Amino acid sequence: MENLTNINVIRDIMERHGFSFSKSLGQNFLVNPSVCPKIAEMGNAAEGWGVLEIGAGIGVLTHELAKRTDRVAVVEIDSRLIPILNETLAEHDNVTVINEDIMKADLAGIIKENFPGMKIAVCANLPYYITSPVIMRLLESRLPIDSITVMVQKEAGKRICAAMGTREAGAVTAAVRYYSEPKMLFDVSRGSFMPSPNVDSCVIRLDVRKVPAVQVEDEKLFFRTVRGAFSQRRKNLANSLSSSLGLPKEQVMNVITAAGLPENVRPEQLSLENFAAVSDALAKL
Ligand code: SAM
Predict the structure, then answer these.
(1) Which domain, by its residues, includes 232?
(2) Is the pLDDT of residue 204 over 90?
(3) In the 8-state DSSP scheme, what is residue 214?
(4) For residues 122 and 148, is the Cβ–Cβ distance under 8 A?
(5) Nearest atom (ligand 1) to Cα of 78
């Protein structure tokens, strides 16, 4: 197969198929030859595993995944890429290309059909405009996924992998940690892509937990509490929860005290256990 990270090969494919990059679909293709093998190896693409990929582009990562793993199913929204993928992935008989939007696709059905009896990994160079929604969809759907290894913008990766109780932590940090154990794997410079984006990137892996990190009375309320707490980062917890949940400040103060926290605590100081205690105290109101 031709080298899909070679710029001349990419230009030739694009020209023959009349393809041009779509900025709105986040099409920045990997051209650094060392990155895809690393994502595949660190992302559990191995014997006995099935891999769900999001966004194939011209198939550069798909090819590395297909070489190492039993089966690959890749969801790609852009129908212009399908004839290209039929050409670039022709040598692999273990790849299924699905021309759908990852936010709408029947992921449980895709997994059931493609990966019976296999451990399941997600690997992707994500389109950055939907980083958090895709990650949250994968985690919230409670699919039988073991790990999610994705390229994201550096800033998003730092936030997702931040420790709770630190300045970098936000609502997405808490949500991701509830469902998984996140790990920063490696940085990728903007020059590794074509076209080159104006931000650097990193690859992170989320090892999905069998049971959530904390037990809560009401999961929906837990996530509303987390989102509400971080919605006004500069306010203390009492003020931000009171305005986001529409509750009198005095009532919120009682909840915070009942959770064993100081009245003037700030959202970024809370651990996941603290958030669970606050949402459980709110559930009792
Ligand atoms: N994997 C390729 C690579 O590393 O070179 C392409 C990565 S590129 C950053 C993101 C890919 O996701 C593009 O091929 C784009 O068309 C696709 N994409 C964008 N939005 C999508 C969506 N909602 N569902 C599925 N694929 C999407």
Answers:
(1) 219-283
(2) yes
(3) S
(4) yes
(5) 16
